Amino acid sequence: MKKIFKKVIVWILMLEARAVLWKYKPKVVAVTGSVGKTTTKDTIYTVLSSAFFVRKSEKSFNSEIGVPLSILGVQNGGNNPVIWLKNIFEGLLLIFSKNHYPMWLVLEVGADKPGDIEYIAKWLQPDIAVVTRFAEIPAHVEYFKSPKAVIEEKKKLVEYMKKDGFLILNFDDKDVLSIKEEYNRKTVTYGMEEGADIIGSNNNFLYENGKIIGITFKANQNGTSIPVNIKGSLGVQHIYPALAAFAVGFSQDLNLVTMSQALSLDHKSQPGRMKLIEGIKNSTIIDDSYNSSPLAVQWALKTLKEIETDGRKIAVLGDMMELGKYTTEAHKEVGNLVAEVCDVLVAVGVRSESIAEGAIEKGMDEKNILRFKDSREAGKYLKSFVKENDIFLVKGSRWAMRMERVVEEIMEEPERADELLVR
């Protein structure tokens, strides 16, 4: 009965969302890819908001139900039928009364299984499609025949976008860039390599009183070079989204200086996405606990490797879920990199045992590896393990591992957990 109710609700909300798009005719930016979708979506929102009235999908509302909810501007009803009925009513009000509706919608579109993106893209038909990056072993791959099948599903967003729309592609990912040849669309590329329309360069860390506080880089376009500072977050995981946002703005004739100022002044670091948090005993936490995939972990570890510190570098890594037959291999590869980067590995969960094995294979001393069955147990132990100036990287699959519990135990201000952490 619950499944039938959900299907009916999804169908009604989808019809209402389509009607709202038809009535108000907002421009739609849709973001897809294997990694970086949510951060890219949030950054595009910040940049476009400097010039337009914009709405973005909240959190990771990227599914067959999340996208209509974002278009209608209503909340997820969960298991509460009253809220779902209220959502339907509010959708009807939008359709049949006059409202001040956003000029732009910035939406995230994901795929948990075959057909997910095609189902949404057919009726959404975005004006701008942004493709972030494809992973060698993407999340949710166990529900697809192969990693290539995941890529083909994500391409459906481009297939169904408006013919006169703009395609925004990551120049540095050759699989993503190949879409340009496959589909005849106006295209703007972004990346760190020469040849992209929007190029990032001179990336570095921002330090204050010896502590890391963010990142800085230059955005280059047609001979113009503008410095960009992003405080509270780390890694190319935030540079690429910024470049993607500039590419979207460039397609709409926005000024690079204005976009850079908007990002430097108004961008808020999102919980669980390479977010810097003060830890106890003057330690630093890189909270990347929102979710995990092999490529995302590798990026996070490479960022940790580049940071200058007098303290230890400690990776607190939980299981990566939904990798199917690639599970053991992917976890071991992460462990190989941990051995190169970190002084200590804290492995959390059953699958993370393979991370430990991979680290040992590459020469990490067994005594520098701590193992825990869950994140709560790990967090409580680490409270007494922390030393002055330690840097922690905390990451793992979201709902299975709840790695934010580790952060809550070792953060300097646990009373701000609801404000700073994934919830």
Give a structural overview:
The chain has 17 helices and 15 strands. The strands form two sheets. The protein has a nine-stranded mixed sheet with strand order 2-3-1-4-5-6-7-8-9, sandwiched between helices. It has 423 residues and is of the alpha/beta class. The protein folds into two domains: 2-266, Mur-like, catalytic domain (UDP-N-acetylmuramoyl-L-alanine:D-glutamate ligase), CATH 3.40.1190; 275-420, Mur ligase, C-terminal domain (Protein-Tyrosine Phosphatase, Chain A), CATH 3.90.190.20. The mean pLDDT is 94. Helix 14 (375-385) runs parallel beside helix 16.
Topology overview:
Elements: H1 2-24, E1 27-32, H2 37-48, E2 54-56, H3 66-72, H4 81-96, E3 104-108, H5 116-124, E4 128-131, H6 147-159, E5 166-170, H7 174-177, H8 179-182, E6 186-191, E7 198-208, E8 211-221, E9 224-231, H9 236-251, H10 256-266, E10 275-278, E11 284-288, H11 294-306, E12 313-318, H12 327-341, E13 344-348, H13 353-361, E14 369-372, H14 375-385, E15 391-395, H15 398-401, H16 404-410, H17 417-420
Helix pairs in contact: 1-3, 1-4, 2-9, 2-10, 5-6, 9-10, 11-12, 12-13, 14-16
